[in-house]
Amino acid sequence: MEVLKENLVEQELVAVDNVQIKLEHKVALPENAKKLIGVSCQLLGQNTQVNGAEITLTGNLVTRLIFINEFEKFDSQDVTDTFEKKVTIKDAGEGSQVFVTMSVLDSKWQLQDQQVVIDNLVVVNVEKVKTNDWQVVSDLTGDVEVRKNEHQILTFNAKLAEKFELEENIELEANCEGVLGVDANPNLKDVATSAGKVNLKGTIMVNMLGVKSVDNTSVPYNSIHEIDFSKSLTATGVTAEDLACGNVVVDAVEMHIENGQKGPVLVLKLTLIFQVCVYGNHKFNSVVDAISFDKELSFQTAQSNYVEVLPQVNTTVEIESNVNLAPNTPYIAHVLAVDGVRVNNLTVNVGDGKTMLEGVLAMNLLLENEEHIVTGEGYEVPFQTHVRMDNLERDYTVNASVVPLNVNAKARRGTEILIDAQLGVVINASTTKQVTLMNNLEEGAPKVDDGSAIRIYIIGEKENLWDLAKRTNLSCASLLQQNPNLENGCTPGERIVVYRHENVEL
Fold this sequence. Notes:
There is one protein chain. It contains 2 helices and 21 strands. It is mainly beta. The protein folds into 2 domains: 2-132 and 154-281 and 309-433, no CATH class; 450-499, LysM domain (Membrane-bound Lytic Murein Transglycosylase D, Chain A), CATH 3.10.350. The strands form 7 sheets. Strands 13, 14, 18 and 19 form a 4-stranded antiparallel β-sheet that branches. The two termini are 31 Å apart.
């Protein structure tokens, strides 16, 4: 008997650490700011360097200040501060590929002595590639009965990132006096693989906060624009059967106003990063059981881990909530505009095939009360929603990102604000499972013929009683007489005993 073995290498992307850090900074209020009415903060231009257990984080904190200037006009200013932060994590091990991502978990601000003090809570997620080497028995030759299983596993292929730019001209209203700021939120709709490519499609939801003149009065307003995009990323060795999980983040935003043929035009230039993990489908046959007719066989098996990844879910959800104003607050006549919308304190839980998402939708609202006084207030709206995923079980690790796409706010009865929002959701799930593989098989001493059983057979996949009768050259009645358990059907992998009988022609 000859034993044929196959060497397999499986790569697994595993979580190493999850660290929360604070990014605190102060921004001086502009000299021409008479009244501050809104603050928002973005984390852009992220970069990481890994050196053993130490990670250096760098990037830009972009703070947008919205205020009323000395001319009683709405105005804005963006202030960019470069940050550098070092964190210590669990040792990722020598020679390992390490991947680091950052996301803002919460953001708070307050005004102190003509300075805006901003506290950002940032989550640093660290992953590494773990390599498993397998040697499995793939085939046997000789006088043996063999049962094989076809295995299909997903093995981590690569984590890729590519920057690309989008430029869009947005026509402004004829009475537009200026643009105070732009929020760009990518909504990924589809991630797919083809030969040597990872392809994505999505939409950038652009929320523009502008100022227009109405009856000789400057009034802020919102304008929503959609920018469709598609992108292909070259990935060596990727096939259409592979699985890709990815996301798109904003790396930089540039804008300026030009005079167009029909009026003012906002020229918007976005730098985006497409981040994607690729998992390759790997199929192989492995011997999981075998018997010999004339010699003893000794088996050695091993339990090996493999990753199981569910197809990514890209969807949108809608939430609606009432915000009750504090007592003694002047009645609100209008909600003029919404700015600086973000999702804070996102938590993810799994149950009953659903992903439960809880978080806080935070925003700045520009309000006009009954006395025609404009104020800027920060509000937080807790939300809870769920997204269904096929084949999702409780032992899966689920990662989710939620971005605000479109948020509307409306005053109700002067004491309430109705919030109606659309959120873009990206969810991916993975778990580690085990497979039993035969990694060694040795042929022992010859069996002693005791005159009883002459054959032990293993029932194969999809084999029925008629198939067994043909294989053993016995009648179905003889097989049932010797193995009464077959009356309940044939179970793949079950052993049956065939005693000495005269051959029966079928």
